[in-house]
Structure formats: C-alpha cells, structure tokens
Design brief:
Layout: H1 2-8, H2 22-30, H3 39-52, H4 57-70, H5 76-79, H6 84-91, H7 100-120, H8 123-127, E1 136-137, H9 151-162, H10 170-179, E2 183-184, H11 191-198
Parallel strand pairs: 1-2
Length: about 210
Amino acid sequence: MLKTQSKSMKPEPNRCWNTQNPLYIKYHDEEWGVPVHDDNKLFELLTLEGFQAGLTWELILKRREALRGAFSDFDPKTVAEFAQKEIESTLNNRQVIRNKAKINATINNAQKFIRIQNEYGSFDKYIWQFVNQSPIDHALKSMSDMPVQTDESRAMSKALKQDGFKFVGPTICYAFMQAVGMVNDHLTSCFRYKEIIKLKQKPSKTQN
C-alpha cells in the first residue's frame, strides 16, 4: 500500500520560492503575479503591501482575513468613510496588525483611491499606465536577479505620493507591482512563469 501511495503522489512543481508554508504556497501558486484589474482587489493588495512595511509577508498572509474583516472586505468606498469609532475598533482588534499609522493611512488611501477612480474611470486604468497597460516580463533566472525597485515603481511611488497616498515608497510599490501582475517576476524555472505569460490581459471597464 505504501508503494502504491508513493507512485500516486504527484511530485512538487518547481517554484521560485523555496517554502513549505501552505499559505505561501497557495499565494504563490494562485495569486502572485496574476494580472489584477479589479479595483477592490487592487485596493486590497495596495493595503496589504503597505501593512507589510517593516514586517514579514508571512505575518500579512496570516492576518489577511482579519484585515479583510476590519476593512469591510477592502471596499474603498466604505473604508473612506471610517471615523474614530472604526479606528478604535480596529486598534482594539487583536487579530489585526494594530498600527495606528497604517490604519489611518489605509483610510486616507481609500479616500485618494476614490478620487482617482472618479478622475480616471477606474484605479486600474490609472495604475497600469506605469507599465503602459501591459505586464513587464523580466525573465529572471535567479532570485538574486530580482530588483527591489525599478524606474517604474519609483515613478508610481512619486505619483501616488503627489496624489496624497501614504506607505507607497518605491519598494512597496514594486512589491505591489509583483503582486498584481504588472511585472512577471516568477523565475523562468518556476512552473508558474509560462502560465502567467499565457494569461490574456484585458483592461478593466469603468468601475463604480
């Protein structure tokens, strides 16, 4: 029976992240690098990347669902209207990352996010302009080749800061670009690399 089970087990695919953490594996295999054009999802990942500042992504993944609950499923319209009551409630929630500066920044960013939507029709249309509406394929051979920021992320950071966003430095912006598929930074040896390339890119429609 043991031999039969061994034969039936599929070998683990080659990943660019060497991890056994199921949260990391699920995120890598299903989300990281997949082009995102949904505004609420973009707001979620921008928020999570901001919360990661000074922390590990593992912690963010562990607290993700608690953060989702605290920030109304990452609905920017709802978060933009958060008042002191919601701030205090979040600060008293032990399941989230209780950083007042980041909580306040999330509310501020939601307000700026809506302003961008109103001006451009969608945040998607605005943010993807930094890669000319098409993902950049870096075709990385090694993790040591992976940049922490690029000209595009620096331009994005500068623009977002000018628009009033917080926790949007060039390194955070680059991590966000990786997360939402604006760049494909899967290693060429990773099983997800070609899968990401094959995905069809479709610009989003105006989102309200």
